[in-house]
């Protein structure tokens, strides 16, 4: 029996529970792990810096979640104590705000999904001058749209994959917008 494609075997951001209290931290971390693992499908080490950056941000949340589970059930619950803590760990102190950076892959992927002639090269515009050269190298390693979809879908029917990718991106977009607004309205800064 063949293994399920990546998007069918990992938790989707669309499945992450969101209540009045906030975004479920444990489910979010599980879905985030699937996002990081997605880059392994391309088999190119050039995406290592992307994975490292995402892992760093996610591990800050995971560290807090595992260290203080009673006060870390939602992403929103992480921020007030995180801001008040005298932690010297940058990844832990700014982890919640850094999660908003997950929006970077969302827009290009949504654009690519809605406009079948587009490519992922629009990612270059989302980075500062300092890392733009590294991003340019990574962008050159991004496969063309058809190959990109083929690698991500891993043989799943394209209509099913397109539907699942749409749900996944929509779920992540909702979470990122919610956390961005929470940080801004709570006086924790704009991201």
Attribute tags:
single chain, 191 residues, mainly alpha, Glycolipid transfer protein, GLTP, 10 helices, 62% helix, 0% strand, globular
Indicate the percent of residues in helices: 55-70%
**Mind telling me the C-alpha Rg?**
17 Å
Number of domains: 1
| Count of beta strands | 0
* Proper CATH architecture: Orthogonal Bundle
CATH homologous superfamily (4th level) name = Glycolipid transfer protein
Report the structural category: mainly alpha
Total of DSSP H or I helical runs spanning 4+ residues: 10
How would you describe the oligomerization state of the chains in this entry?
single chain
Overall mean pLDDT: 77
The CATH topology: Glycolipid transfer protein, GLTP
Outline: globular
Q: For the record, what CATH class applies?
A: Mainly Alpha
Uncertain regions: pLDDT < 50 for 5+ in a row? 86-93
Please indicate the percent range of residues in DSSP E strands (runs of 2 or more): under 5%
Task: Report the biggest beta sheet as strand number plus sense, adding barrel if it closes.
Answer: none
N-end to C-end Cα span = 45 Å
Secondary-structure element order, as H and E?
HHHHHHHHHH
Written overview of the protein:
One of its GO terms (molecular function) is ceramide 1-phosphate transfer activity. InterPro entries: GLTP_sf (IPR036497), Glycolipid_transfer_prot_dom (IPR014830). This is Glycolipid transfer protein. The structure is a single chain. The chain is built from ten helices and no strands. It is globular and about 45 Å long. It has helices spanning about 5-10, 25-40, 50-65, 75-85, 90-95, 95-100, 105-115, 130-140, 145-155, 160-185. Helix 2 (about 25-40) runs antiparallel to helix 3 and helix 7 (about 105-115) runs antiparallel to helix 10. It has about 190 residues and is mainly alpha-helical. The protein has one domain (about 25-185): Glycolipid transfer protein, GLTP, CATH 1.10.3520.10. It is about 60% helix and about 0% strand.
């Amino acid at each position: 029996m063949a293994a399920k494609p990546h998007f069918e075997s990992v938790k989707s951001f669309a499945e992450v529970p969101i209540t009045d209290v906030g975004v479920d931290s444990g489910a979010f971390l599980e879905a985030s792990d699937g996002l990081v693992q997605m880059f392994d499908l391309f088999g190119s080490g050039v995406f290592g810096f992307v994975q490292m950056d995402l892992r760093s941000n996610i591990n800050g949340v995971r560290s807090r979640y595992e260290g203080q589970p009673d006060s870390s059930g939602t992403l929103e619950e992480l921020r007030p104590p995180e801001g008040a803590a005298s932690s010297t760990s940058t990844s832990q102190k700014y982890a919640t705000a850094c999660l908003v950076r997950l929006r970077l892959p969302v827009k290009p992927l949504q654009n690519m999904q809605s406009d079948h002639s587009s490519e992922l090269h629009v990612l270059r515009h989302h980075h500062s001058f300092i890392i733009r050269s590294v991003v340019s190298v990574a962008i050159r390693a991004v496969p063309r749209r058809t190959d990109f979809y083929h690698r991500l879908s891993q043989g799943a029917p394209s209509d099913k994959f397109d539907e699942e990718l749409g749900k996944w991106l929509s779920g992540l977009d909702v979470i990122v917008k919610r956390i961005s607004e929470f940080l801004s309205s709570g006086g924790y800064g704009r991201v």
